Amino acid sequence: MTGSTRARVARGAVAAGVAAAVLAACGSPSERAQEGTDAEGLTTLRIGATPMPHAEILEFVDENLAADAGLSLDVVVYTDYNQPNAALSEGELDVNYYQTAPFLDEYLEGNPDADLSYVSDVHLEAFGVYSQELTDLADLPEGGEVGVPNDTSNMGRALELLAAEDVITLADTGGRAPSVDDIEENPLDLTVTPVEAAQLPRSLQDLDAAVVNGNYALEADLPATANALAWEGTEDNQYANGLVVRSEDAGAEDVVRLDELLHSDEVRQFMEERWEGIVLPVGGGASED
User: Fold this and answer.
1) Rounded CA gap, 91 and 24, in Å?
2) Which of 76, 116, 168, 264 can bridge 12 by disulfide, Cβ–Cβ 3.0-4.6 Å?
């Protein structure tokens, strides 16, 4: 993480606590653009993101590309998945960047008053099965324990990876994300334990293996400190991460410009060089109403 990113993290921690009072009257990105800009004539977008890779990608954009597009990015960093959608719905953020479309669908099902829209896919973080001790997935012991994320969409994604590797067999869920209750065959009689996604790397020492989100694996440096036993396939993968906004802002000029920057050749090259195949840029463009 760069020094400027750490500074933004510190500002974000304060901003998350006071943003409601400060930003309630700020309006949409387009409204702010009409009402005023900063001293350099740039429109500021306040964006919620998890630290890696999302905040780092946004920091790269802010330092290298945003000013030429008339933007300044103020990144509010969150360390879990529970807060950024609520903050966006309540007007504390203009945009967030940390989630998949299925994760947003799950959130909206539980929060029907939230009016949020997924803009476009930006990158994919490949899930991996990691272990501190094992070097091959075939060495999973009978009666062993495997950790998976405890939120619905990521749990389903983790179970699908285990099923693709023939560790378990899942029942047909009719398109619904599978849960541990949908494990139909479990030849090794494994205990599959749901754990809060951010805690999985820390819990790995107490597990035989864990299926870990790409961003949390990177934050914990698992590719260097643990053994990767299996990787998620990327073809036709529905779990790319992208921008989310309040629906009224889905076609706002500033959101469109930010989305274009995130799909630029410069950002693609940054992702490919910085994370060497764990964070994969994907195509797409901003949707407009």
Assistant:
1) 6
2) 76
pLDDT, one tens digit per residue, over 32-76 is 444 435 657 899 999 999 998 999 999 999 999 999 999 999 999
Residues 101, 153 contacting (CB under 8 angstroms): no
CB burial readout 228-244, b (16+ within 10 A) else e: bbbebeeeebebbbbbb
pTM: 0.70
The Cα 279–Cα 59 span in angstroms is 16
Number of continuous H segments (helices) and E segments (strands) in the chain: 11, 13
Closest CA to 46 of 216, 254, 219: 254
Question: Residue 73: CA atoms inside 13 Å, Cβ hemisphere, count?
Answer: 35
SS3 breakdown of the chain: % helix, strand, coil, rounded to 5? Answer: 45, 25, 35
Number of neighbours of residue 212 by Cβ within 10 angstroms:
31
Which of 112, 116, 111, 115 shows the shortest CA–CA distance to 97?
Answer: 116
